[in-house]
Amino acid sequence: MEKVLLKLKVILNFLLEIILPSKCLGCKKRQEILCSDCLDRIDKAERETEKDILALYDYRNPIIKDAIWKLKYYHKGIIGQKLGQVLFIEFLEEIYSLKTFNEGSPIYVIPVPISQERKRSRGYNQTEIIAKSFCNQTDKNVLKIKTNIIFKNKNTIPQAKLTNRNKRLKNIKGAFEIKNREEIKNKIIIIIDDVTTTGGTMLEIINLLKKSGAKKVIGFAVAH
Fold first, then answer.
1. 179-215: per-residue pLDDT in tens?
2. From the CB of residue 23, how many other CB atoms can be counted at a distance below 10 Å?
3. How do the domains of the chain map onto residue ranges?
């Protein structure tokens, strides 16, 4: 019954977008969930991230915080689609720099997974929506989404609820497992996440992939 209600909610949101297009989260203009003018005004991420992790926006900005919150908890998939487009455009130089080292193979794109328990309750993984849109901006021989490699094997405390860096790193330690290892041998991989704080989640996945034979792994986050 719960799954049916979630599907109905997604369908209802889709129909509402057709009948009554979203207003921009920043200026409330119709037709764009995040218009270009408001996107230009969002502060870029300036706080230092971990090596091999790039973040686009400053999560303290109220527009981007509102966007991610509504994507995550209110079934606003259109926000994830927009964020995926923006992430691709802003990191285009880095993407094609990686592509030159990949010997003609597509770059694998892996969205940070959530636990099965959380996915059942929420109905979707918001990071997967961003990643799919990110990949859809170019040909499949450039970017290819992979959701059968990394899995979350336990339902951890949300990282945002932990203020201590050491607790965050301990919380996420061993939370992911890798399958289909043969698929990632000598591959270049981009990890996609909505928000990175200490970088613990991405680092855990990056290290896991590298130990399993990936050639290079880098993380892209919408906000930090």
1. 999 999 999 999 999 999 888 899 999 999 999 999 9
2. 14
3. 42-223
- CB atoms under 10 Å from CB of 136, counted, come to 14
pTM (two decimals): 0.88
DSSP secondary structure of 54-81: EEEE-TTSHHHHHHHHHHHHS--HHHHH
DSSP lists the bridge partners of residue 110 as: 191
Cα distance between residue 145 and residue 134, in whole Å: 9
What is the C-alpha to C-alpha distance for residues 47 and 39, in angstroms, rounded to an integer?
Answer: 19
Task: Please tell me which residue, 41 or 75, carries the higher pLDDT value.
Answer: 41
What residue type is assigned to position 55 of the chain? A
Tokens encoding 158: 């949300």
Closest by alpha carbon to 122, among 16, 1, 6? 6
CATH of domain 42-223: 3.40.50
